[in-house]
Amino acid sequence: MSSKIRRCAPATLSLFSNTSARTPRACIVSQWLRSRGLTTVDSTPSQSVPLRKHLKDEAKRKKAEAKGSHNDIKAKTNPHSDEWKLTVGVEIHTELNTACKLFSTAPATAADSNGLPNTRVALFDAALPGTQPQFQRATLLPALRAAIALGCDVQRKSGWDRKHYFHWDQPNGYQITQYYEPFAKNGSIVLSAEDGVSKTDLSGTQSISIGIKQIQMEQDTAKTTHYAPSSYHVDLNRAGHPLIEIITLPQIHSPQTAAAVVRKIQAQLKSVDACVTGMELGGLRADVNVSVRPRGSSGNYSYGGVSGLGQRTEIKNLSSFAAIENAIMAERDRQIDVLEAGGVIEGETRGWTLGATETTRLRGKEGEVDYRYMPDADLPPLIIGSDLVDHLRSTLPELPDATVLRAQQDYGLSAKDAKTIATLDDGERLDFMEETVELVLDNLGDDQADKTKIGKLVGNWVLHELGGLLATSNIAWADVTVSETELADIITNVQLKRITSRTAKQLLATLHELPPDESRPSVEQLIDDGSLRLRPLSGEGYTALAEDIIAENPEMAKAVKDKGQKGKVMWFVGQMVRKGHEGTVEPEKAREVVERLLGS
Amino acid sequence: MVKLWWEEARAGCMTVTDNDDSEPLNGDSIAIKDNIVTSTLPTTAASRILSYHTSPFEATVVKLLKQNGATISSKANMDEFGMGSHSQNSFNGPVLSLFKRDGVPLSPGGSSGGSAVAVATGNCWAALGTDTGGSVRLPAAYTGTVGFKPSYGLLSRWGVIQYANSLDTVGILAASVEDAAAVFSILNHYDAQDPTSLLPSVRGRIAANRRTFPKTLRIGVPTDYNIHELSSAVRGAYISTLQQLQNLGHTLHAISLPTTKQALSAYYVLAPAEASSNLAKHDGIRYGFRSEGPDALPRENLPLYAQTRGEGFGEEVKRRILLGAYTLSSEAIDNYFIQAQKVRRLVQRDFDRVFATQNPLLDSKPGGGGGGVDVIITPTAPTLPPTVDEVKKQSPVESYMNDVFTVPASLAGLPAVSVPMPLSDAIEMEVEGGDVKTTGIQVIGQFGDDELVLRAAEIVQNL
């Protein structure tokens, strides 16, 4: 979705006017930019990888890991990597979910919006001479929700600083950020194996805690799109959009855990509605700093109050989980190779591109930009009252970990199932399950009904039966036609022994295929139409059926009767269920009859 | 109407009186310094980098003037981006003073020299300037006009092109204190578009603290301002002013502002530091001048926009940007920028210690010596205006010396006004016909005491 001030020229920037450009919405700044011969054009929106796809990939990865075939190929490229201790810290930038920009009333650009380039630009966003920032207080709310979700101390007083560098994506020549006094400090997140932490990092414990050093608010940059060979389009719509930067302590010791930390932070932010989009492509960007030192030894460097580390390098601008994991692996191996060859690690900034096997040097210390941080004298300090923080804390949506815990305790789900159901489809499956449980309990009308027992049952149906149908039919959750009421009716019938569970599964499959319109039959209708209701056989019926089967299988009968092979009783039960008219044989009763007849 | 300006100021705004004028300014022509944006006339801040720039919006102060019936007569030339003390650093050519010495034009003072000359020559009734370290008061002193810098935050800076935004203040040049006060009362309003505009609550606190105007003023005379650079002509006029005030029954009190000596150095660290930041936006992309050819020359490893900025800025602007970039750099910030901020705070404390009125921005008075002064009276500039030839021979640091008396009030954000005072007879005999016959006397008051400062200035003016 680029847009932009169009500029092009050989090996440089120069004015370029596009006569076929579409007219942008009336906007003083876009008119202004056009008067400079800078035009705005539309272009195609970028693609984003849906969360579901990511979760699928993640599931695949976990599966592979469970099989013990974790393909940490690069880890094995260096035979000595076990002798080195890796340390990683992460900086995450994410766009806040707000209505307007950080310092102007221009509307914030939703990541998926198709607004024309340079139409959401206030005077200040274009850095017109004589303009000043006007802090938009509402942007603070999602930032505070993020800080609370990440367990940070919200600072009563924080400030705004200018970070200077020249680039066309930064119209003022500086970014306004919170360098000296960030608004939130000293948080942490807790991760367990379910979050994707590597087993070695857990080293036997249930969970690990990673410290959040600080969170700061800052401005996003304009969006630049490069059109080869030398044309750059700049869209100021994003310039000034509020971001938060989350800085973890260097307490991460594996690439896999680093990705898990980012994923978990993202989930926390999402659950409290703090950020706009997912990680893939732009909504969230991460920088990682990486150092290694010989295992059991102490390095000479200290970062964020964590001392004894090796010289670190920074890898900038990673925009997917895979990129984070792979870049750290590559950089770890590079550093080990350098050190083992007797070299020295330089404190430098490196880059990594998808599919690469090595990080590449971007600039060394001598090429480091001196950002000349300076307090912004136009902006008064940010004073945040504890009453506001308390209010937000008390009204915060449930955090993912709390949801998982609730699914376990209230509904009797296993830790694994609870995590899965809470994560899938933005928690919609959990909602579906909860609603279904309530309906089943109502249907049963039994005050004594065990909620955790029903919960576990419904959880199984939602995750495994319905989940299985989704997988085989390749249908997304959003397109599922089975309603909570239908599933509750099916399960109720099973519970009341009115249908067999095999019938129930068939009913679910049938309903899954039907469109959600008026022609859709109710569960009761389907049972009636298919004559699926369990019609209990009479005692004689059971005996007759059992006798038939025993007669047909004298050897088996003999084995039970004479040799006392009681396990074979169940074989007879199975035969009875299969031979009996659909849905008429209850295994329990069948067993009684078989045991009686075979005298065991 | 004008005589009652302080009553009206107290009411919070200019009220329409029952005479025939429907608007307070009734067509009065006002010149606007070229770093205050106007949507009808170009605004270039006297810089090549903004050549031909016409702003798509109008500054709040210009809007207020127009709403009150003023005619915007012209944009006034200045030192580029306000950087200079003689209005000679302009892409449009130097500002010419109306005074000469031995046939050589005198400095009109800077950086609001064009505004001052426009008023002095009668080309307009009043003019807006900006005052960062003395840029309204010094030209007033050099041209025989009144120059008023209000308390920082009273007049909106929305639409004022930043030089050093923690110091930049819109100021007023006029032929009399009353005229300056009339313009001030029209502009003295809260503006939500300027985040440094004083909130209505603070304005209310200032109004509540306001005392009745004393019959006799307690006048502070800073001993630290008796520097050896003070010329005899200026010293003579200064002493004469103080004597006449004493004769009227006002009392003189020696006061000490010990940080004065460091103030000028601190100013010339802070102002360039902020300038290097504020001027970073001028890259030629979205507005203004743009060099021919590429913006960056990777072959020569030049940073982006180097050529545009190199050609677009004048020498003094480049000097201050470089100074500022250095003092903010990670190796120098502790020794320069941070130290200068500390000095700035000490300067403010110096003033708070001597004024009788409590600083409305502070919770309690530090130190709190009893019996403080109502206003401080000093010369505006240490010398009479030099000729433009002398200016050319000055080193930048010598040139910065002109601001020694004006910078402290800027660092503390205090209201200060320069009033023309005739030179004593003996010296006047020596000056030839075309030379300046006045010097500037500066009245400084506590933060928010703008009304008191203006009324004291009126007394000085009427001596």
Indicate the topology.
The complex is a heterodimer of chains A (600) and B (463).
Chain A: E1 5-8, H1 28-35, H2 51-66, E2 84-95, H3 140-149, E3 153-154, E4 157-158, E5 161-164, E6 174-177, E7 184-192, H4 199-202, E8 207-219, E9 223-227, E10 231-235, E11 242-248, H5 255-271, E12 284-294, E13 301-303, E14 306-309, E15 313-318, H6 321-340, E16 349-351, E17 360-363, E18 374-375, E19 382-383, H7 386-394, H8 400-411, H9 415-423, H10 428-444, H11 451-473, H12 484-495, H13 501-513, H14 523-529, H15 539-552, H16 554-561, H17 569-579, H18 587-597
Parallel strand pairs in A: 15-16
Antiparallel strand pairs in A: 1-10, 2-11, 2-12, 3-7, 4-19, 5-6, 5-18, 7-8, 8-11, 9-10, 12-15, 13-14, 16-17
Chain B: H1 5-11, E1 29-33, H2 60-67, E2 71-76, E3 100-101, E4 104-105, H3 113-120, E5 126-131, H4 137-143, E6 146-149, E7 169-174, H5 177-187, H6 200-209, E8 218-222, H7 232-247, E9 251-255, H8 260-278, H9 306-312, H10 315-328, H11 334-354, E10 375-379, H12 388-393, H13 396-400, H14 407-412, E11 416-422, H15 425-430, E12 438-445, H16 450-461
Parallel strand pairs in B: 1-2, 1-5, 8-9, 8-10
Antiparallel strand pairs in B: 3-4, 5-7, 6-7, 6-11, 10-12, 11-12
Mind explaining what this structure looks like?
The complex is a heterodimer of chains A (600) and B (463). In chain A, 37% of the residues lie in helices and 17% in strands. Chain A has 3 domains: 29-388, no CATH class; 400-529, no CATH class; 539-598. In chain A, a hairpin with a 2-residue loop joins strand 13 (301-303) and strand 14 (306-309). The model of chain A is unreliable at 1-26, 37-52 and 68-76 (pLDDT under 50). Chain A is elongated and about 95 Å long. In chain A, helix 10 (428-444) packs across helix 11 (451-473) and helix 10 (428-444) packs across helix 12. Chain A has 600 residues and is of the alpha+beta class. Chain B has a single domain, classed as Amidase signature (AS) enzymes (Alpha-Beta Complex), CATH 3.90.1300. Helix content of chain B is 35%, strand content 13%. Chain B has helices at 5-11, 60-67, 113-120, 137-143, 177-187, 200-209, 232-247, 260-278, 306-312, 315-328, 334-354, 388-393, 396-400, 407-412, 425-430, 450-461, and strands at 29-33, 71-76, 100-101, 104-105, 126-131, 146-149, 169-174, 218-222, 251-255, 375-379, 416-422, 438-445. In chain B, strands 2-1-5-7-6-11-12-10-8-9 form a 10-stranded mixed sheet, with helices on both faces. Chain B has a two-stranded antiparallel ribbon with strand order 3-4. In chain B, helix 7 links the parallel strand 8 and strand 9 (251-255). The model of chain B is unreliable at 1-20 (pLDDT under 50). Classes of the chains: A alpha+beta (600), B alpha/beta (463). Chains A and B meet through helix 1 of A and helix 8 of B. Chain B: It comes from Vermiconidia calcicola. Chain B: This is Trimeric GatFAB AmidoTransferase(AdT) complex subunit.
